[in-house]
Structure formats: structure tokens, C-alpha cells
Amino acid sequence: MKHIFYNKTKLVSFKKKIIVSGDKSISIRWVLFSSLAKGISTAKNLLLSEDVLAAISSIKKLGLKVKVSKKKCLIYGKGIDGFTYKKNITIDAKNSGTLSRLILGLLVNSPYKIKLVGDQSLSKRDFNRVAIPLSKFGAKIKLNKKKGLPLTIQGTNNLQAINYFENKGSAQCKSAIIFAGLRTNGTTLINAKKSRNHTELLCKYLKLPLRISNKKNIDLIKINKANYIKPLNYKIPSDISSSAFFMVLTALSNNSQLLIRNVNINPSRTGVITILKKMGIKINFKNVKNYKGELISDIFIRSPKKIKSINCPKKLNSKAIDEFLVIFLVAAKASGISSFKGLSELNQKESPRLFWGAKILNLMGIKTETTEDSIRIFGNPNLEIKKKIIIKNYLKDHRVFMTSVIASLSFGGNWEIHDKDSINTSFPKFLEIINDFKK
């Protein structure tokens, strides 16, 4: 069938060099910042996934001209107040949590109601965490009964600066408040639990009125109104979340090594590397450089002779939140019991990922013990799968699909994995690279 991936063959050892697609988080943020800039912004290596294309479609509905080709994307910005608001606009964020939450921060001064919709998975996610702070600015946000999508937002010309404690470690919520603060007179203050900082780094590069001070696990962020944003010309680095699947594939293969080129190694995103190193995986950075505030590097990985179990420190959770599903596969082959705690945020993703992580491992024959926010994984270094495993009905969560593919290549078995088109949200070239490994 067209949308099912079948695999019956365990991968043999390999030595590869690959380039993965552009960083999704930065690609979406580039689109949104460029929509506020005055002049033409250019991006190369922009991730042309469904999530990013939805971001482009959204700003076009707000009156901006965009030109997209395989080599580059141009956005013709009209300035921070350059959106054209019309009545009865509907923005479809598809599957993108990043787009759906961040763009609300750009719409806080819309004079008309704007409707925000998404797919089945996105519609089930919590939008109250963004609606509460943005309402404090003065925007009127109406959610559905389950605090999800569809929602409507109507802004105001009389935005009020706010003080807000972001205690979930949500970069999406924090970024939405930053975007709203850039439109608001006065000083907006955010006490934010540590999370990804791509938005702050872009503000710093663009010399916007944002200041940060650090206190233990909290960032104190001060934002003032921006009157001008310069065009943002950017070569998007490769995505570390996409790279993680191939890091794990290498870790689980015998006598293998891999070089992944030009990857974003922002310290707020490298939890997966820290965790894999603690489990005995050999990983090195090569050719490290600073590019417009982001750290970029080639990543070299070698498979270990033995994988160690881990009691994963909670402080790494926010730095690896999108990679835990595939990290669990490494724990499945470890010697001993691995423990992961404080992962309730996993269930706020495209699917209840903690549940799916346990389900995939259980189908593989790995024992787990789970609660609402934790999982213990009883590793088996000699695991060989010889049965048929079917993965379906997982709300088309791209990371469930890709994790299942990596499991099939690493442990053997006869896998039938449905909804392979789910990868189009974040990594359309995933199977193309996988097929290169199988040659």
C-alpha cells in the first residue's frame, strides 16, 4: 500500500557521510521574523516540510509576498506593522505546534477575529498555555471546550506589557510572549524555565530590544517594543532532531561509523548527545563554528561494543524532549535498567509519546514500567526480533514513524509501519536517506 513502510532486513555495518535537512525550529522562526522585517529576507537550505510550508502560507494570508524554490526562499517584508488584516482569515497550522503557538504572538494586534485550525493531532494539544499569557496583553482568545483548536484570536491596539512566569519549559510559549512583547509599549518580563533559545538568539543577532539574565534554571527575559527589524539572510543548518535518528541507528549497529555534516548544536538542543555519551556512545564534534549566534558542527559517531544503562538526569529533559522516543531504543539494548523521569511534556506532543515509546518497546519484547511522567526500560543487549510488528493509529506522529523504522533496521523482525507520509511534516527526505543506508 502507498502509505505503509515494510522492512524485514536488519542493517549490516556501515561507514557513511550524510547531510540531513534544514532545522525545522529555525526554518519556522526565519519565516516569522522575516515577515516582520523591512525588506527582502533570503534563506538557503530552508526545510520545505509541511510545517514550514504552512508557516509560509500563513504569512501570505497576512498580505506578504513569498517566492519559494529548491535553492532559496525570499520573503518581502513590509515592517513590523506590515501585515494586512482582513475579515474572516483562517490560518491552518497543519501539524505544527511551533507555528500555531508562535504566530499567535504576531496576531495580538489584529483588529479582526482570526481563526486558527490544525490537523487532528494538533487540535488535541494544549493551547491554554499560550492563551493565558497572550490574553494578559489584551488579546481576546476563544478556545474550544478542550482548550485546543480551533480557536479564534482578536487583538487590540492597546496592548499592555506583562510579567509572566513560564514554568513548563515550553520554548513555544516563551517565543509567543516574546513576539507579543516586540509589539507592545513598555517592558514585558518573562521568568522562563530553561528551554530552547532559538528565538532569543535571533533577537540578539537582529539587535532587537531583548535582554536576558540567568538565575539557576530560570531565564529572566526583558522585551521592549521593536520599531524596525532588518532583513534576515540565513543559511539554515541541519536539524539535530532529524540527525538523532541516524546517531541512534549508528549506536545500535555493529562496527559502524557516521559523519553528519553542518548540524545545529545549540546547547539547548544537545541533550540527546549528552545522554548517548553517558550510555557509552562515542560522539565527537568537528569543525565547530558560530553562525549568527548558533553553534554549527559536523558530528562523528561510532558504534560502541557495549551500551550502558542510564538514570537520566531530569535537567536534560528539555534539551532532548523531541529525541526521547529514539533514545528509548538505545536503552532497549543497554545492559541493565534505564530510568527516565519528569517526562509529562512528552504527552503534549503530536501523540502521547511516552505511551507510544512504551508500546513500541513492548511490541519488541522489552519490559517497561511506566507512569504518567516516567518510564523504566529493562534492556536486553542480545535482543533479536523475529516476529511481525505492526505500528498504526498513532495520530500520524512523524517521530513515532521514524523511531519505528530505526527499530526495524536495528533489531530485525518483520515490520509494517503505517502512515509513512507523516514524515512530510518535518523530514520529507528521511526515507531517501534510509534507502541509501540499505544499499
Question: What would your notes on this structure say?
Answer:
The protein is α+β, with helices and mostly antiparallel strands. It has two domains: 4-21 and 237-437, Alpha-beta prism (UDP-n-acetylglucosamine1-carboxyvinyl-transferase, Chain); 24-226, Alpha-beta prism (UDP-n-acetylglucosamine1-carboxyvinyl-transferase, Chain), CATH 3.65.10.10. Helices cover 30% and strands 26% of the residues. It has helices spanning 24-36, 50-61, 97-106, 120-123, 128-137, 171-181, 198-205, 240-251, 271-278, 324-332, 353-364, 398-411, 430-437, and strands at residues 4-7, 15-18, 38-44, 65-68, 72-78, 89-92, 114-117, 140-142, 151-154, 163-166, 188-193, 210-215, 218-223, 234-235, 257-264, 282-291, 294-302, 337-340, 368-370, 375-378, 388-391, 414-418. Strand 4 (65-68) and strand 5 form a beta hairpin. Helix 8 packs parallel to helix 12 (398-411). The longest helix has 14 residues, at 398-411. The protein is globular.
Secondary-structure blueprint:
Blueprint: E1 4-7, E2 15-18, H1 24-36, E3 38-44, H2 50-61, E4 65-68, E5 72-78, E6 89-92, H3 97-106, E7 114-117, H4 120-123, H5 128-137, E8 140-142, E9 151-154, E10 163-166, H6 171-181, E11 188-193, H7 198-205, E12 210-215, E13 218-223, E14 234-235, H8 240-251, E15 257-264, H9 271-278, E16 282-291, E17 294-302, H10 324-332, E18 337-340, H11 353-364, E19 368-370, E20 375-378, E21 388-391, H12 398-411, E22 414-418, H13 430-437
Parallel strand pairs: 2-15, 3-14, 6-7, 10-11, 21-22
Antiparallel strand pairs: 1-22, 3-5, 4-5, 7-9, 8-9, 11-13, 12-13, 15-17, 16-17, 18-20, 19-20
Helix pairs in contact: 1-2, 1-3, 3-6, 5-6, 8-10, 8-12, 10-11
